[in-house]
Batch of 2 targets.
Target 1
Amino acid sequence: MNVLYSDQYNINLGLLNYLHPFDGVKFQRIHKALEDNEKVDFLSPDVPVDMEIVDGFLSSIMRKKVRDSVFVFRALEVPKLPFVSFNFLDRKILTPMRWGVAGTMLGAEKALSSGDIYWNLSGGYHHAMQQNMEGFCIYNDIGICHQQLVKRGLLSPEDKILIIDTDAHHGNGNAYTFMDNDRVTLLDVYNAGIYPTSGYTRDRVDIPVPLPPGTEGETYLQRYNDALEKLDGDYRLAFVVAGTDVLTSDKLGGLCLTTEDVVERERLTVRALKKRSTPAVLLGGGGYSRDSAGSVIAAISACSELLPSPHAAREALSH
Ligand SMILES: [Zn+2]
């Protein structure tokens, strides 16, 4: 499995960590647990995504709001702190997120050029959109990445794109971003009893799987598997928002999956993509509970067994 990670992904606010139910340094824990796994190959973006690229995606009013601490605090769902400057927020939270966007972009480029599946530990900011940021999402990495790939000729506007969203929350930012783009297919499995509840973005989902709060793994996996069976199309690229806020220990997601259920979910995803030979980049999405890192570690280890080892692939090429 090819995994994108940078030390710069980690969000460490020191004393301010208590302000959010958020394990911001889970990425380094996942990296540490997998760095000796010979079936896992790590690669890192060189630089965070440039603000010029972000601005090219945003509406003119949002270009101002992403630089205003009042609006950024609101999107991060923490109270405004008079002693925290925009520079602090930018350095400690927004810059790590821009590294996450760069990881999504590098993963998508590599997936397109190799036909393989890549896994970005960060990214999957599915509540952000061109004219809004909310739900701890500032930059819509999938939208920014799609725009850049088209601009650079790596994708045609006509290419069919698949977005699978298995985060506990409905991906309103992606639904809004691709509201009028019928080349993009959305499959979304979500807790229908929690934020966001906007009907007009839910209506955009091509293959919706709304679940009641408290849904357990068996039902979730059955419904997800049925949804994957409905996919029909030759997708040039897939993005997967693989949020781990579906875990029982997650206070925000309201679903009751175990670590084993998350592992099985990612196996279903990878098998479905492989079956269709769809290049893909999986993204971290939400999920910062105490079990989140462990479930990602177990899922990447399990999915690595389904794919040829990157080392073995290189060996074969060199002979
Ligand atoms: Zn979520």
Target 2
Amino acid sequence: MGRSWLPRLVVGRGLPYFRRSEGNQRGGDALHGGEGPLRVAEQQEPRALSRAFVEACGENQIRRNDDFNGTEQEGAGLYQVTQFWGERRNGERCSAAAGYLHPAMDRPNLTVITGAHATGIVLAGKRATGVRYRAGKGEAIVKARREVIVCGGAFGSPQLLLLSGIGPAVELAAHGIPVVHELPGVGKNLQDHLDFIMGWTSKDADMMGIGLRGLPGLLRHLRRWRKDGGGMIATPYAEGGAFLKSNPAIDRPDLQLHFCIAIVDDHGRKLHMGYGFSCHVCVLRPHSRGEVGLSAPDPLAPPRIDPRFLSDERDADLLLKGVRMMRGILEAPALAKYRDKEIYTAGVSSDADLMAHIRARADTVYHPVGTCRMGVDDMAVVDPQLRVRGMQGLRVVDASVMPTLIGGNTNAPTIMIAEKAADMIKAA
Ligand SMILES: Cc1cc2nc3c(=O)[nH]c(=O)nc-3n(C[C@H](O)[C@H](O)[C@H](O)COP(=O)(O)OP(=O)(O)OC[C@H]3O[C@@H](n4cnc5c(N)ncnc54)[C@H](O)[C@@H]3O)c2cc1C
């Protein structure tokens, strides 16, 4: 998912790498790749419910968009998905590992160690010479002849740098870690898509749920999945989507919807009996900034994550607008036959009451970035070649290097960054 929502500068520089990574079932064109390792497919069998969502958007004057990664991002449609298509693995998830790593497993110059936890970067002064890790009970070291590339994601990468003595002096001192290199931006600048969910129960059972009513359909779909990877089992859950402008005068969407064919409560931790649907709305370019630090100097302890969601009132105001727009869509006639009871926000209508719900329930939609920000200023962690500033032989390549959060989903952009980094590493 995602291209036209990127800052224009990145589109220019990133586009060749997006195209190189993408293997779109629709084939390649000026904005898409058709042959890349990251397979992008049409959904196998989207539910009628999701098509009704797109119709409901139309009833709210939101135009149809069949390619959010085309020339226009605004509009409503069904997402394409990162799944294998037309092959033996039709309908299976094409993760970065499945698309890139698994086909390379036989290379003689590749060793993959699984079940390993990196506990620190081995340093000789300010040069990275290896990585320390724990696998099982023992600790081991992998030596690096040329570079260490940290790819722990927006939480794991700053944590590993901090554990290795690279970061803000105050944070390191608080945990008794000697400063190897003071880099005040490590862990700062955390940005994430703040998201709010509305949900309805449904008397229809042609969706994902828990109950006997949907069982015959589910068994049919399971048989289909075993046969050719098709049917509802291949659903991405978030089948429908939309990119909206909170104000027609702005030049690009600032809100995104994910429409799900199931009841989503507390990230799926709370299960509901029965059937229903949910819709997420998120703020695409939040102003709030959080941070990642250490909860302890123990490398196995989880990092301290403070997203500081809603610390900037502009995010709260925009999310409230988004919730109202989303509700208008979910209450449109096209979805009438699917709606039964509103789950969380029934009867809640004033701004103050909706805002209280937002403050109580809004949460991440899993797109953290920015904690090892790329740049050339004092707070930047990596330079434009993704090398850790002030260090040698050390790069970060993952979502943490994004200076600002992009206005869409973050998986494909992270892979684009990795494609570009591969060229930079080879050229070094
Ligand atoms: C539930 C969920 C749903 C998502 N859905 C979508 C979606 O539909 N579309 C989309 O575009 N994006 C989606 N994303 C976001 C997308 O997955 C991320 O943007 C992307 O994976 C970021 O890639 P990354 O390489 O930066 O980090 P990651 O993919 O998180 O990779 C970092 C890896 O490093 C490992 N690691 C961290 N620290 C250590 C350590 N010390 N030692 C060893 N290993 C370590 C982690 O376990 C992880 O495997 C979703 C994310 C989540 C969590």
